[in-house]
Structures are given as structure tokens and as C-alpha cells.
Amino acid sequence: MTQIDVKPRVFKNYRLKIAAHNLEKHVSGVTFTPTTSIQTWKGGTPEAVFSDATSPTYACQLDYAQDWETPESLALFLMEHEGELIEGVEFHPLGPTGPHFTADLIIVPGQIGGSIDAYGTATVQLGVQGKPEFSPAAPAVPVLQRLDPATGSTAGGEPVVLTGHGFLGATAVKFDGADVEHQVLTDGTVVAVAPADAAGSVDVTVTTPAGTSAPASYTYA
What we know:
Layout: E1 15-18, E2 21-22, E3 27-35, E4 38-42, E5 49-53, E6 57-65, H1 74-80, E7 85-92, E8 100-106, E9 121-135, E10 143-148, E11 151-152, E12 159-165, E13 172-175, E14 178-179, E15 182-186, E16 189-193, E17 200-208, E18 211-212, E19 216-220
Parallel strand pairs: 11-19
Antiparallel strand pairs: 1-2, 1-7, 3-6, 4-5, 6-9, 7-8, 8-9, 10-12, 12-16, 13-14, 13-17, 15-16, 17-18, 17-19
């Protein structure tokens, strides 16, 4: 049986995009909650019992600041767009580079006012049409940190260890713009063969489906 790793996270850095507005500064909580029920049918014998779950429906709870002064604040947006369906709302629970959820929300206005000597906050339940769609985090662009050795003969043919991270799935390693033989050993290690070149410093890069690293310098002598 495969042991599956786990990465519990403390929520610290949301991203919330509703229509064209980035509203993460306005919210202290975003929660999508499914609701379902169990339906049971019983026949005329003890063994004729059947149960099944209904299809879930979702609601999106926003906990937010009542800001009635900033143009296009979340509080004003909810009031001004009551009853509208806003498609493609994006919620990034781990910040801009992590996985995210996209949902179509039916807008409901929130509370107005509250207690004296306390921040004006509100909680509202927005309807979700369908269910949130999950998108995994985009793979990170590779980062090339070091070459070992960083110098070599103009004749080429020498193995060079490239160290960094994000190298899995590397499609190319280039010395001075030329593709070279390479082998990916780990996410942080690639071995490449330096080609022949004229004396001087050249750029070395690693390319994966996510993009190309910033260059590191290799010197021919």
C-alpha cells in the first residue's frame, strides 16, 4: 500500500477575484461548503433497504469588513450586484502561486452596521451554481543556482553538474544557446556535457514545460 504524504497548511495569504476586482484584502475568511442528504427507501422485508446520497449543493461563505467608503469595496459590490450571477470567481487559498478554485456565484448582500466600539464586519452566504472547479498549482519555472565546475576547456566534453530546483521534466539544457546532452538526476540536479566553444563566459539555462531558468555563467579557458 502506498504511503501518501500530507501537507497541512495554515491559511495566511488568500487571493480572491470577483469579476475584475481583487478583493482578498476585504475578507478574513472564505469557505465553500457542500450540503447533501441521505435518502432511504424501505420495502416490505427487512433486507429491502436502500440508501443513497443526494447530489451536493454548495454555498460560499465570505467573512469580510464592512467598508462603505472605498469605491468598489466588497461590501458595496455585494449590495450593488444583488441577485447577479458572477462567473469565474477565483479563490486561491494558498496565495497567488498555489492551487485554486473557480466557481460561479450568485451575489447576496451582507449585513449593515453592528456593535459600537468594534470593527464593522459581516458574514454572507453566496449561492454557488454547480460546484467549484479545482486547478492544481502551476509548475514553477526552474531555478539554476550553481554549476560545478563553472569553468572548462574550450574543447568541451566535460560533465557539469547543474544545481537548483524545479528540474524534473527538463526538456533542454543550453550552453551559449546550443542544446547539450543532459540527464535529470533529481528535482535539484542535472548533469550536462559542456560542448566545445570559444574562450570566454557563456550563459547556461535549463528549460522545462514551465519555462526557462535565469542563466548561470560558464567560463571557457
